[in-house]
Amino acid sequence: MYGPNEYHKGRMASVIFHTLNQIKASGQMKLFRSHRAGIGDGEQKRDFIYVNDVVEVCYFYIKKRPESGLYNVGTSQARTFLDLATLTFKAMGLSPNITFIDTPEDIRETYQYFTEANMEKLRAAGYDKPFYSLEAGIAEYVAAYRSDRYQRSDR
Question: Which of 19, 42, 48, 131 could form a disulfide with 31 if both were Cys (CB 3.0 to 4.6 A apart)?
């Protein structure tokens, strides 16, 4: 999940938060190189979901009260880290400057190359709103990041 005001999360903030800060500090973004056959550098995929979508799902739960249980919340649309980085540069009005570094040895064997939420249960419960595309979410996130409303003196 990503969205404005993630400063307090530190190391656990979203990838886009760290991408923005890397670009701001160095003009480039470093992504993990792939260490799996058939998967290109930066082609690892995640189901990135914008915080506004999560809020809408929470509102749905409060209002509609579907059957109790565990529900996935995601876009059900896995996208690459390369997509995320490229779109962030674009939203900032910059040309992409992406380099690849080795995935650290201590996480290399357990690093997830693909995550994608199965949204069938939530959709079957009646949630029918579309989710932000990665393009729209990043554009809104970058605009919020640049706005006075989300500026912090410690950046």
Answer: 42
Express each pLDDT in 46-105 by its tens digit: 999 999 999 999 999 999 999 999 999 999 999 999 999 999 999 999 999 999 999 999
Rounded Cα gap, residues 130 and 57, in angstroms: 11
CATH H superfamily, domain 7-147? NAD(P)-binding Rossmann-like Domain (3.40.50.720)
Q: How many whole angstroms separate alpha carbon 22 and alpha carbon 127?
A: 36
Contacts of 1 (CB under 8 A, 6+ apart): 14, 49, 50, 51, 54
**Which residues sit opposite 29 in a β-bridge?**
98
Please give the model's pTM, rounded to 2 decimal places. 0.88
Give the span between the Cα atoms of 144 and 5, in whole angstroms. Answer: 9
Domain ranges of the chain: 7-147
Helix H segments across 3-154? 15-26, 51-64, 81-91, 105-108, 120-124, 134-146
Distance separating alpha carbons of residues 150 and 33, to the nearest angstrom: 32
